Task: structure prediction
Amino acid sequence: MTGRQRILAALRREPVDRTPVCNPTSVATVELMDLVDAPFPDANRNPELMARLAATGYTELGFDSVMPVFSIIQESSALGCKIQWEQKDNWPTVRMREPIWRDADDVRVPNDFLTHPDTRCVLDAIGILRRELGEEVAIIGKTMGPWSLGYHCFGVETFLLMSLDDPGRTKLCLDRLKEATIRFGLAQIEAGADALTLPDHATGDLVSGEYYERFLKDLHAEFAERLPIPLILHICGRTVDRMGYIAETGMAAFHFDSKNTPDESMEAVRDRIALVGNINNPETLYARDPEAVRAEVFKNLAAGVQLVGPECAIPLQTAIENLVEIPRAVREWHASHAHPHAG
Amino acid sequence: MAELADIANATIRQEIAEYLDRPVEIERNIALFARTRPLMQEIAVAVIEGDQVACDRLTRQALEEGVHALEIMDDGLIGGMGIVGIKFRENFIFVPEVLACARSMKAGMAHIEPILSAAGVEPVGTVVMGTVKGDLHDIGKNLCIMMLRGAGFSVIDLGVDTAPDQFIAAVEEHGAPLLGMSALLTTTMPNMGRTIEAFIDAGLRDDVKIMVGGAPVTQEFADDMGADGYGKDALACVALAKQLLGVAA
Result:
């Protein structure tokens, strides 16, 4: 199987020749930027550089997928948020202390949303990757969910307080913001994306599982219906209390954090959705060695996790030797174990 | 020793019975609320329920009835926030609810602070807090600040994207014995270490205790960079601040 075939089969929970290595979020590093001369912040704004840096996920690291969206700010920039673009060694961030909206009546997706340079950049980069990498590797796009966009556009505290004070207005905001998610997702599909990561940070570090069910479950089910390629929901932090709801949305996969063990997560979703994850970033990929990475890969494979990869966007200073250990360990494990998802 | 039945307010009794599990915390809260007057318990309930209108009204009522501002703060507002912190730590409530509770406390403190300030009442301690350079995330830091203020600390909030020299200037200006730094990004975590180095270079490291926290930060990382302590959540931050300043828990 090619990497693309492997990823798409695993997302459909169909048989694969081995567990795919997947990066639903960024694997860009400073080392890789130097290797292909595509540094931040330009690689977040120039489609040629964005595609060149994204391709290294396949050409240098040996993953089965590439992911050109290295941050979570492209749509928010197009919606009008102020962005701090930062330097080569840091991610761009939305200036959430300078919110652009105060009320549901302010929520409006601009007419030029898809022609704004920061959304256009992603679409053009996906087109370049499709042309250059052909069918060899899966191209994963990214469209932000309305909860995360709410943080960016209203400010985290304002948005969370609104959710408590006026749930009806909050739902109205989410309903209006979902059009940004769908429009950007459809445009990436048209540009050549094989699957989409949909980050929507209703994390257990901030809100309850009941909140996910009340505000987001139906919206996420709607995304799964209206975006006709596999969707990978990404929520950081502790999420096992909401994985049961997530498994009922119809999304293809859930990208889960190392705060949830592979075994308890597999138990929570009970084969209703594929899992992607969950190699720890700060303590393992960033701070330890290939041996520690290998141990975490094995733990995920032993639990039956369908796609293996880092838990979230990897630290920019992560060593390449730790990243290439992920596909190496997957191959090593399959050489000595019967594969639970094999055809 | 006081017992749960000694507390007049039924909501407080229910909160302690339902949400508190650690014997030391149960004992401390029963002892506190069993000796406080009913109006202070009502103020604590207003904080716990995130009812800023009630908190504002009850605080004004207590002052009009001649209750000392310090008593209102310690027995009502801080007492209520103490239970809020425990419920948050144990995942009975989440950030939206904590934000509402902190808003209620703030509504009460708006009446209390000017009185305490005019009377020269000292806070438990002064803490300078900020998110490090290159990092614009502040929800975790803000939760810590809410809990610190809820425990009687005076907090100087430097906001986000704070450079080492800004931390140094604030510590010097306010004579703060304690500094707290937060980071959400793995890319900005090293700026905690750089800030600590800046304090060493400025000859000020021995004058200030430094605590760190944030989603990717670990005890090991805190030790490596030479911090005095690491707090994994907002309530741990308060306990650490008290420990570092030698304040009774």
